[in-house]
Amino acid sequence: GEDVEQSLFLSVREGDSSVINCTYTDSSSTYLYWYKQEPGAGLQLLTYIFSNMDMKQDQRLTVLLNKKDKHLSLRIADTQTGDSAIYFCADPTGTASKLTFGTGTRLQVTL
Amino acid sequence: DVKVTQSSRYLVKRTGEKVFLECVQDMDHENMFWYRQDPGLGLRLIYFSYDVKMKEKGDIPEGYSVSREKKERFSLILESASTNQTSMYLCASSPTGKGSYNEQFFGPGTRLTVL
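Above: the input entities. Below: the structure tokens describing the complete assembly.
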């Protein structure tokens, strides 16, 4: 079945850039997603990228997509303490709008 | 404003009890989902429903059942709770008819502890 993998933990200093990586196996996806989960909350869509794009920039967020290697990354510029959260990449699977989520990367921002 | 609500934020139950987790969405979405979230395992799909009274098993349906009698409400049922069902449970919904774009909207989660 579909497999989506992420590293579990990333620690960065405030003001630095964060890069969260994701690999997926289903290459038929038209959209790929990044979700953010703040402590004690559900997931919220952070950004997404259409599969015919290599890069998408949205303020401090940059999404890079390498379809050949099935690799997706999320870069957060000038990381702030409010960016501390768990980040999930998600890849559509099969039918009925299902998504397969990665294991999540916990981002810790230190002062 | 888009809203998915779950009946409880925290729940403590005893082994063997029947447990009901309720989820309501006010966006008239066709699809609804139940996930469990465990550290290091991410989100795993338990069941989903793409219409009233329709349901399909996800990746880990064992020990769970679901009910969708109305479009806005999707219930997760633990027939006989066990300690390995201690977890965070997340409900989500999404519309159809958006082509291949399928953003899901999540509730705040229910942290269930089974003693």
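Note for the figure: The interface with chain B takes residues 1, 4, 6, 8, 30-31, 33, 35, 40-45, 48, 88, 92, 96-104 of chain A (CB under 8 Å).
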